[in-house]
Amino acid sequence: MTRRQAIEAGAATAAAVAASSALAQGAQPTAQGQPMPDGVTLPASPPPAPKPGSVGFAIIGLGDYALKQIMPRFAQSGRCHIAALVSGNPEKLARVGEAYGVPPEARYSYDDFAAIAANPAVEAVYIILPTGLHAEWAERAFAAGKHVMCEKPMALSAAECERMIAASERADRKLMIGYRCHFEPYNRAAMELTASKALGDLRLIRTEHSYRLGPATPATNWRIARAQTGGGPLEDYGIYGLQAALYLSGEMPERLSASAWRPEGDPRFAEVFAHVAVQMHFPSGTVAQVVTSYDSAGINMVEARGTTGSLRMHPATGYGGNTLVLETGNERRAMEPGDPEVQFAAMLDHLAAAIRDGTAIFTPGEMGLRDVRLMEAIYASAASGRSVALKPDGTMRG
Ligand code: NAD
User: Fold this and answer.
1) Is the pTM of this model over 0.90?
2) Contacts of 177 (CB under 8 A, 6+ apart)
3) What is the CATH number of the domain that holds 125?
4) How many structural domains does the chain have?
5) Which terminus, N or C, of the chain has the lesser number of Cβ atoms within 10 Å?
6) Catalytic residue chosen out of the listed positions 108, 240, 294, 379
């Protein structure tokens, strides 16, 4: 090991200890109105009246993902519509409400949210807030008698996830995590390829999800504020690679080892890691490497390699433009299983089907809890410098 590597390894351990304890202890953040994000295009005219039986959603948090991805995609849903909005910024709330045809009486502030219980037009709530607010607002939504779709990651700790699941059970309402890739044709095709052994027996999985964060501080960007985000790139972006390793292998790891690193003196990484690298060992013998970074040139990639073939997705888990190349023997095939953009409406309609028809949810709260448990094990391994043995539910042994 060179001196530089030794220094970096020391920094990694110190930072891992800090972040893993912060995952459990971060100061409780509160919901606060934010300005309209840059580059939002609002609909030119409000949507048509919902179809009979359509599930009315309240959107909580009018930020980038809500306004640019989720809300426009309700137009492609056959079974859901936007019935209410919740925001702490009155001007943004009015502007977005007008554009989406949400009447003033169905526009709520964070302070008067509890009144939503008396609005029968709202059956489900979609939580698109910073992660540190997911648990509190899911519990509030269940207390108001609504079903919940919650963005990823589910919450900052397994304890918070367990509270959310308990609240869903008490209220007898559904809880689904917005893991859109389960509804995306390229990822579904990749799942079918590995499950049907089109690659032979799966041996190696490699995923990378990285981008370079611009200048920011924890005060200006919640994604690098520990109390809102946890350890950083793993929860935000690496989670797609973690998920892919699980849905392509169809297994839970029995052991993992990880390292996490942050540079000293960079305000972006005052509270979170710059890189996290994980190696997971599955009972079948498959090994997965999951890498994520907030400080390297962008990549969104998933590869799986079996005894007789491989698949590569690059980009793998995007909103659109995903690719899937299958190689077996001398044959190389670029697959086109469908339009990636259907993932958003398919995900919304999946919750509507669970509510209306009682069908099972592919991405329930238990899956979000499982992933948060694995992230806790990842930080524990990074902090100790040792591999961690896991139970089938993702909790650490011993
Ligand atoms: P964002 O910062 O653009 O928006 C967050 C919104 O939450 C703000 O606009 C504001 O309306 C509200 N908010 C309330 N209290 C806040 C507070 N104290 N600080 C900051 N915002 C506050 O973030 P985003 O990119 O829209 O992410 C929101 C959620 O969606 C996160 O859970 C994120 O992980 C998830 N997300 C998911 C995907 C996906 O592909 N599934 C993509 C992006 C984001």
Assistant:
1) yes
2) 149, 150, 151, 152, 154, 363, 364, 365, 367, 368
3) 3.40.50.720
4) 2
5) C
6) 240
